[in-house]
Amino acid sequence: MSHLQDTISLHNGVQMPRLGLGVFKVEDGEEVIHSVKTALAHGYRSIDTAAVYQNEEGVGQAIRESGIAREELFVTSKLWNADQGYESALQAFETTMDKLGLEYLDLYLIHWPVEGKYKDSWRALERLYQEGKIRAIGVSNFQVHHLEDIVNDASVKPMVNQIELHPKLTQQQVRSYCQEQNIIVEAWSPLMQGEILQEPLIKELAQKYEKSPAQIVIRWDLQIGIVTIPKSTKTHRIHENADVYDFTLTEEEVASISALNEDHRVGPHPDHFDF
């Protein structure tokens, strides 16, 4: 883990950057274009969006205007709940591609495990993958029982599971299952919407290493082997979030951060969401 272009290998051999930019709640148009172009100019190569974020058009514009070759980038989007099902997922993917203005996607995820629909959605993703329209496919917010349900019938196993993960929600059970199945875990809301930055241990380590609390948490993410996509719209924060390669937390410090776990979520529980 020496620089921002470091990658992790998915089980089909595709290389995924270990640190990327998330654009949840970033407004389409000028705001998201600025965020993405700032990140790409600074060396980020992974951008994570979703149909429900309603900013795919701005993300696509920023990618085109960045001047960076498409094959150097790793672009993720997600299938929204209202579009789940086999035929509707295929159609939703085409809409996403039209908005992004891209010829292929690097990673496409089922956003939430909609009961009675996610297996049909997965068949659609398998087809798109086999047709070469997506380089890797995965899921988001899947618990172990959802993953088992997919893995038992799938012809292509998920490559990524993107879940809420931060020091107050370490998701050890899901991570252990994913490790057994060679599914890469990716963290959304890694900074707990800013709440974790006030944690005394995190602030203490920030002081020790002369880093920001956010940098301590991002470094923890990388050292426990997960992919992370902190969101920011501010230039200095986008730069700061990537400046985590000149220090290393000790094993004891990593363990003490993990010990902050309280199974506390800032987002919905995947077994109890209603949207």
UniProtKB/TrEMBL annotation:
Sequence positions that bind substrate: 111
Active site per database record: 53
MF annotations from Gene Ontology: oxidoreductase activity, acting on the CH-OH group of donors, NAD or NADP as acceptor
Top-level taxon of origin: Bacteria
Pfam families given in the database record: Aldo_ket_red (PF00248)
InterPro entries given in the database record: AKR, AKR5G, Aldo/ket_reductase_CS, NAD(P)_OxRdtase_dom_sf, NADP_OxRdtase_dom
UniProt KW keywords: NADP, Oxidoreductase
Domain NADP-dependent oxidoreductase positions: 19-262
Family indicated by similarity: Belongs to the aldo/keto reductase family.
Identification of the protein by name: Glyoxal reductase
Organism for this UniProt entry: Pontibacillus litoralis JSM 072002
